[in-house]
Structure formats: C-alpha cells, structure tokens
C-alpha cells in the first residue's frame, strides 16, 4: 500500500465530515437567508421583479428582522407598481434600520407621491438630523415644501442643494421643475440650460428642456432637443415617444407615426422601442391599427410575451373575443401561473358576458397574487357587470389603495357614481383623483360634474376653470365650461367656449354636440347641420361626426338625409353599434320596417352582449303586432342582463296582455318598478299586474301617479278605469273610460274602452 495514499476508511471519514459540514451550512438560517437574498438580487438584475420578490419573501420567512431583504422587497414591489406593498416594506426597513438614509428617502419619496406631504417632509428631516449635507434628503425636503404650497421655502431649500452640489446637473433639473411649478418659466429654462451646460450629453436634461419647450408651444425648439437626444442615443425609446407626443400635440399624425416607425427600425431587438407604434395606436384609441401592429409584432417576436399580451388586450377591446381567448389560453398552457394571462382570462370572460365565471376566475387569481392591482380592477369590473355593485366598488377602491395613480379606476368609479346618482361617491372619487394627479384636468372635470349635480354652479365653475388653467391645450375644460354656459342659456359665451375647444381638438364631439344643441335650442336646425358639415371638411374620416350629423337630422325628421349620414359613418367604421341603432331610427321614420329589423339584427351580430338592440327590436316587433317575436327579443335581453328594467317591464306587459304567467309578469313588473321608481310606464305595468292578480286596490295609487305624470296617455286612463271598476267604484271608472275616449286612442283600444263602458254599472 502506498503510504501517501489515504486508506479507504480515512477517505470515508473525510467525506463524512464534509457532508456534515455541508448539511450544517444548509441548515444554518443565516446561510439560507443569504442564499435567498442572492437569488432575489440575481432575478432583480434580470428585470424579473416578481420572481425576485418571491425570493426576498423566502428570506424574510427565515428572519423577519432581515432589513436588507425587506428593503430589496420594497424595491421589487416598486418596480411592479405595488405601492402598498412597497410602503409596508420600506416602513419595516426603517423601523429595523432608522439610520438607513436611502430607505428613509425612498419612503419619503413614496409618501410624497401618495400626497402625504407632511410625512414625506418628516422623513427628509429625519435623515438631515444625522446628515445635514445629504443632497437627496434636501431634494426631498424641497419637493415636500413645494407640495405643501410653501414655494419660497421650497426654492430656498433647493438653492441650498445647488450650493452643496453645484456640479450635479440633476439639482438644476429639480430646481427647474420647482420653478415651473412656481410659474417662473424663464428661470426654469435657465436651470434646464445650466444642467445641459454642465453635461451636454445628459439625456434627462435635454428631454426636460424639450418637454419645457413643448409646454410653451415652442415646437421647433422642442423638436431640436428631442432630435439631439435621438442622434446621441438612437436606441432611446423615451426620445422617440417624446417626439411622437410633440407631433401629436401639433395634430401631425403622419409625422408621429413616421418617427415611431423610425424607432422600430432603429431598435428591432429592443421591446421598448419596436412596440412604441402599437402603444401609440392604442393610446389614440385606434384599435384597428393597434391590432394590425401588434399582430405583426407577435409574428416578428414570438418570444415577446408582453407584445402578445398587448395584442390580446387590443383584441378584447375590439370584441374579437374568440381569437383573444385562443391566444391567451396558449399563454396559460405554457405557464399556468402567468398572472397577467390569468387576469386577461377574467377580462375575456367578462367581455363574453360570463360575469359570474369571470368573478370566480379572478378571485382564484387573487389567491395567487393578493396585491395585484390589475386583478382587483378586473374583478371590480366583473362584479359591476354581474350587478354586484357594492362589492364592485369595494374592489375598485382596493385597486386605488394598491395603485393610487391608476387613473382609469377613478374613471370607472366615477361612471358607477353617475349611474347610481351617487353624488357623494362622485365627489369623493374626484377628490381622490385630484389628490394623486393634481396636475391633470380629469379630477376637476369630474368634481365639476358632482358640483353641477348638487346645483352648486359656483363650485362647478371653479373646478372647470382649474381644469382649463392646468391644461390650457386640452379641449375638455372648455367643453365643460361651454356646457355650463349652455345650461345657463348664455348662448354667446357657450358658442365661444365650444369653438375654442374645437380649435384645440377638432375631434371633440362633445364640443360639436354642444354647438348643435345650442343651435337647436335657438330653433336654428339649419345652422346646426351646417356647422357639423363644416367640421366634416376638417375631419372627413371621423365617423363620430357623421353620427352626430345623423342625430341632428333625425331630430328634424329629415330621415333620408340622416340615413345618408349614418351610412357614411358605417362606411368609416362598420363596427359602430351606435351608428347602426341610429340608422334604424331613420329607417323606421321613412317607413322601411324590414330594413330596420335587419339593421337591429346587424347590431346584434356586431355585439351580441349589447342588449339595447334586443329591446329596441322587441319594441318594434310589438308595435307591428308581432308580440311573439317581441317576447323572444325581451327574453334574450333578460338572459344577458336579468334585471334590466326596460326588458322586464315590456315582457311583463306582453304576458299580461296575451295570457302569460301572471306570477312571472308580476315579478318582472316589480323588478322594473324597483329600478325605475319614477317612471309612469313601470307604474302602469305593475298596476296592471295587480289588476290581473285580482288586487285592484293596490293598482289605483300607481295608476293615479301614471295619469298625473302623463295625462294625455289613453292607456293609463283606461287601466285606471278598470281598476276602479274592479274595486266597485263605478262612477270613477266611468269618468276614466270617458277621458280615455276623449284622447282618441287607436281603434282596437277604443273598442276595449267602449265594451268596458257598456259593462260598467251605476255611476
């Protein structure tokens, strides 16, 4: 045996010791938590923030006081936009490490964005207590002061920062932003230029200066800065997006598309670059072009899951639900835990009218990712669609808690508030939006609507003026103020405001509609038509303008002209259900019932979940005496929306008139009445159901309400007469029958009333 070679027993002993050491290391909590932290950092560096968060959570499970893991988890949450989670983790980090200046400043910045200005200020001051020359803390303090409207203190603090770091371009940029906020445009420009002088290659500084010039409508100078950035950094997506925004601000749609095509060519392998054109079409609500562009991207970049998901989202909005579902299920098959795809599945189910299945699907998704804002938002929308309004509102409010800057959630809540007539919810939603986006006009426009609903005209005017001040190039503030002046019958002022809105946005249909409404209110229909036709010469490819022209022509009973306008609208956008439904009105107006029926059926084919076409077709069939066909249409509408009051009311009446189930009719009539308690038609239908059930006493008050609201409606008087008759009040019955005959109802109803009079005894 070689004396230098260890024996097999010794080899075994060495192996056993090594295994024991390894096992010991594996069981060591400090080793395990560091391993998870390192893994999380690796994922983070690759941009895989969700995976990074999971690893950081694993580390925290081992050691709940592991401050570094808490801090890194906060950063991962920030990258995903999970602000509530980021806040909690930063709070925990600073509790564990009060002297962690970076975490304190990050927490302060988050508090600042959440409009908790005093708290942000306190975090900055905490850092400065230990490090008076901390530049980031002083910047946070200056920004907090500005948010608290202490402009002088803010600018003074920022000057201190500049004195501390006179060679850092970013401090001049921040000073420029603060001066812009203080309406010191000239000084702001000088500081943006100073930042560029310090670092001529600074992309952020040139972008800031370009954006400043764009706000000042100094188009050529803005373009020069953006082109400089593109030349220096031809693979910078932000520069191309800024240039496209600049062109769009000048109504140069072709130039905007061209620059984004250039971005696509310059960055064929950079997702943030080659996807810009699709995003542009999406933001412009040009869904056909967006679908075409994303379809192309999916083919060119089959591994780009973001492009595929964007394409699916566009397909959903385009109502191409079968194709959207097919592509999305492929994603889920590849990765069953893909949260984005699972959220899209819920959205698709909801769009298909399967709201209850959507709710179940999204609830399951949230069990996997409880803090996912998109999942909460989609669940809220599905709950609203399933008529679970209060839970839907709660989910939307939870979305706001998780992602306060998600503006479409406020818009959805505002729409719910308007539907409910809940002015307090509308006001709260508006104030919430103003708190997180004080520089945007949307919140003030919403608050103006709430104020008008409460008849507080002065408050509405203040909010509309604020919207105009914040966004003088945005048409909506002028449109809102024009509508207010129109309601006040200040026609000259309204006309000026609507024209200002159209000068800023020639496609502002609300402004154009306001002009038309104003002209009609002054009995000038010809002028309304001429003004819309003038706008068509400026925007000949806007189907919405042709739809508006058709509406005005319908109001003047010019059915042939309206049909031509609406046909043109459908040539431009064959998918417009609104145009199809308006077209049916024109066709009915000129007596072409078969064409109107075909148009309603076309609308149903276009959007089978839109119940308006079923109800309108049912009403048309009912007016033609085709009550069986009408009954089928109302039943189809109720299959989609079981509590729809119009469908429920009309179907109940058919059952009552044609020997249907009286109990079902009563239930339907009660449903309609609950939803429309002030409508005389629902009062009449419910009363007629009570008469049919042999309880005319319950019907009389309802019918008196209906006849008071619509004294010229012969049917209501006839029904009231029958109720009196069955309640043995023959004198009142006779008076109602005679009143009904005086109103000259159709011949069949006249015969019914005469028979009732003949049967009436006494009085």
Feature tags:
763 residues, mainly alpha, Serine Threonine Protein Phosphatase 5, Tetratricopeptide repeat, 45 helices, 0% strand
How would you portray this structure in words?
Helix 3 (49-62) runs antiparallel to helix 4 (67-80), helix 4 (67-80) runs antiparallel to helix 5 (83-96) and helix 21 packs antiparallel against helix 22 (355-368). The chain has a domain at 678-763: Alpha Horseshoe (Serine Threonine Protein Phosphatase 5, Tetratricopeptide repeat). Mean pLDDT is 90; it is low at 1-25. It is built from 45 helices and no strands. By secondary structure, the chain is mostly helical. The longest helix is centred in the N-terminal third of the chain and has 20 residues, at 8-27. The radius of gyration is 33 Å and the shape is globular. Helices cover 79% and strands 0% of the residues.
């Amino acid at each position: 045996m070689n004396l230098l070679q260890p024996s097999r027993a010794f080899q075994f002993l060495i192996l056993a010791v090594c295994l024991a050491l390894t096992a010991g290391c594996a069981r060591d909590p400090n080793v395990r938590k560091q391993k998870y932290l390192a893994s999380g950092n690796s994922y983070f560096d690759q941009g895989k923030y969700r995976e990074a968060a999971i690893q950081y959570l694993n580390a925290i499970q081992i050691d709940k006081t592991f401050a570094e893991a808490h801090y890194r988890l906060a950063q991962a949450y920030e990258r995903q936009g999970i602000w509530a989670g980021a806040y909690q983790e930063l709070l925990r980090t600073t509790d564990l490490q009060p002297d962690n200046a970076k975490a304190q400043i990050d927490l302060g910045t988050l508090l600042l964005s959440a409009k908790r200005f005093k708290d942000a200020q306190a975090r900055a001051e905490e850092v400065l207590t230990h490090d008076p020359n901390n530049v980031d803390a002083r910047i946070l303090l200056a920004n907090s002061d500005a948010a608290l409207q202490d402009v002088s203190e803010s600018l003074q603090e920022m000057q201190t920062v500049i004195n501390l770091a006179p060679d850092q371009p970013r401090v001049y940029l921040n000073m420029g932003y603060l001066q812009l906020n203080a309406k010191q445009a000239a000084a702001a420009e000088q500081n943006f230029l100073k930042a560029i002088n310090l670092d001529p290659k600074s992309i952020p500084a040139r972008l800031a200066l370009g954006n400043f010039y764009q706000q000042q409508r100094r188009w050529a100078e803005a373009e020069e800065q953006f082109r400089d950035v593109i030349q220096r950094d031809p693979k910078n997506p932000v520069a191309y997006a800024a240039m496209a925004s600049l062109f769009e601000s000048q109504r140069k749609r072709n130039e905007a598309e061209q620059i984004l095509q250039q971005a696509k060519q310059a960055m064929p392998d950079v997702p943030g670059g080659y996807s810009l054109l699709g995003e542009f079409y999406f933001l412009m609500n040009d869904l056909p072009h967006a679908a075409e562009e994303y379809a192309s991207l999916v083919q060119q970049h089959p591994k780009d899951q973001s492009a595929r998901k964007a394409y699916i989202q566009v397909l959903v909005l385009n109502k191409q639900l079968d194709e959207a579902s097919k592509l999305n299920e492929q994603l889920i098959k590849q990765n069953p835990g893909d949260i984005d795809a699972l959220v899209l599945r819920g959205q698709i189910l909801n769009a298909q009218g399967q709201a209850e299945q959507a709710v179940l699907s999204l609830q399951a998704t949230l069990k996997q990712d409880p803090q996912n804002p998109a999942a909460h938002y989609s669940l809220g929308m599905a709950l609203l669609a399933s008529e679970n309004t209060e839970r839907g509102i709660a989910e939307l409010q939870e979305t706001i808690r998780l992602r306060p800057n998600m503006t479409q959630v406020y818009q959805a809540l505002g729409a719910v508030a308007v539907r409910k007539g809940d002015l307090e919810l509308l006001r709260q939603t508006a104030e919430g939006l103003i708190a997180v986006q004080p520089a945007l006009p949307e919140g003030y426009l919403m608050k103006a609507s709430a104020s008008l609903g409460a008849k507080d005209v002065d408050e509405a005017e203040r909010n509309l003026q604020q919207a105009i001040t914040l966004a003088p190039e945005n048409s909506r503030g002028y449109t809102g103020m024009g509508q207010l002046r129109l309601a006040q019958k200040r026609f000259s002022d309204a006309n000026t405001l609507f024209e200002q809105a159209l000068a800023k946005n020639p496609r502002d249909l609300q402004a154009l509609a306001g002009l038309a409404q104003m002209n009609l209110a002054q009995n000038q229909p010809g002028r309304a038509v001429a003004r819309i036709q003038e706008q068509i010469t400026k925007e000949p490819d806007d189907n919405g303008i042709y739809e508006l022209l058709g509406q005005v022509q319908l109001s003047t009973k010019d059915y042939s002209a309206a049909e031509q306008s609406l046909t043109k609208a459908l040539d431009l956008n064959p998918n417009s259900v609104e145009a199809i439904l308006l077209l049916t009105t024109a066709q009915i107006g000129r007596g072409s019932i078969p064409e109107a029926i075909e148009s309603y059926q076309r609308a149903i084919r276009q959007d089978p979940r839109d119940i308006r076409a079923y109800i309108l077709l049912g009403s048309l069939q009912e007016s033609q005496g085709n009550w069986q066909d009408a009954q089928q249409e109302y039943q189809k509408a109720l299959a989609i929306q079981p509590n729809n009051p119009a469908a429920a009311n009309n179907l109940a009446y058919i059952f009552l008139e044609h020997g249907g189930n009286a109990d079902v009719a009563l239930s339907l009539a009660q449903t309609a009445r609950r939803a429309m308690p002030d409508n005389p038609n629902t009062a009449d239908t419910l009363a007629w159901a009570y008469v049919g059930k042999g309880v005319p006493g319950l019907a009389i008050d309802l019918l008196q309400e209906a006849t008071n609201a619509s004294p010229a409606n012969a049917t209501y008087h006839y029904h009231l007469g029958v109720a009196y008759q069955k309640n043995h009040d023959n004198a009142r019955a006779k008076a109602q029958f005679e009143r009904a005959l005086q109103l000259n109802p159709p011949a069949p109803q006249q015969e019914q009333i005469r028979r009732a009079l003949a049967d009436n005894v006494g009085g």
